[in-house]
Amino acid sequence: MGESEIAMHESQIKTISLTCALALLVACGSDEPPAPELSFEESLQQQLIQAQPGDIIEIPAGRHELTRSLSLNVSGVTIRGAGIDDSILSFKNQIQGAEGLLVNADDFIIADLALEDTVGDALKINESNNVVVRNVRTEWTGGALTSNGAYGIYPVQSSNILIEGAVAIGASDAGIYVGQSNQIIVRNSRAESNVAGIEIENSTFADVYDNVAVNNTGGILVFDLPGLPVQGGRNTRVFNNEISNNNTDNFAPEGNIVGTVPAGTGLMVLANDSIEVFGNIFTDNNTASIMILSYHITGRPMEDENYDPFPEEINIHNNEFVGGGTVPDSEPLIALQAATGQRIPDIVWDGTMTPGRQANEILCMRQNGESSFVNLDAVNGFAAPSFDSAAHDCELPRLAEISLSAGAE
User: Fold this and answer.
1) The pTM is what?
2) Sheet arrangement for strand 347-349
């Protein structure tokens, strides 16, 4: 072999050796296989965990199956889908967590999506300021079942809350519930086939208007209850709503306070003050269109000495009543119907009040068409119900419109 051939042979050996070395280096650098592509659930969890103020998290169209609760605790985040019936987060196979989505964050917006079949509450928003829930649907798709989650849309201990264009179906407590909160608007929403359609509880300064509450056990509830960190519910306006056919049998779990609501209740005010009810249409609610009650009628104990169990300053005017009161689901009202042979009046007051107060300080009613009324005389064991409404032909001051702070509307 000549010198030139030897040199060429050595060069080929070096080239082959270098190629092999490079191949070995590449092999060494790929000991770990490429990271697998994240599932939708993993990707969404990661986005929520890594979110920064100002982020918009998009939920694409489609039905997305989730097995674990989601949570967000970063302020200034928007979660947005492609539509209330297009972007669906389904928790039908949920194996972990108590909610669908739990939020503890200010300046939060959620819009244009649905949460279905959660084990517990669908959308819980806790201790948050400036909250917008717009065009969001929560639903349990199996019908009215006690095993359904308690609350659909559920802001609690929060402020400056706007809920609009929402749909809530099938909650075993309340479809749209705002509790222990202040500065609230619930509008242009639909609550259907829940135990309570829309509930404002232990809250202050709320406007509930232009909603439809249909086929619930109770259409709209305004409650103030003992034993909660925030008490003294007051200043709620309920107006321009359609409240009809709320005759679904009560399917709340045993022991829940909402489990005492009679099927066929249009609007119930329990132990709340300064409530204005006007411009609503009540249609075919089988127990009664409106009930004004003290907490005493529940028969439950009250251990909080600071709790006020009596409703006061309830102003009912300019409403329309169609049908209803024909099949009451309440022992005192069943007895009343048996005694009179007539349907239950449109407006029912249990007749209890703070000692020393006058009837016209508790309840005023004006311009409600041909509406009927009964004072049940509950304080005397329902002994002498009265249908005389003359003491309630009075006016109370109109409540102010709710105005939310910047960023909430």
Assistant:
1) 0.90
2) 68-72, 96-103, 121-126, 151-156, 174-179, 196-201, 218-223, 265-270, 288-293, 347-349, 373-375
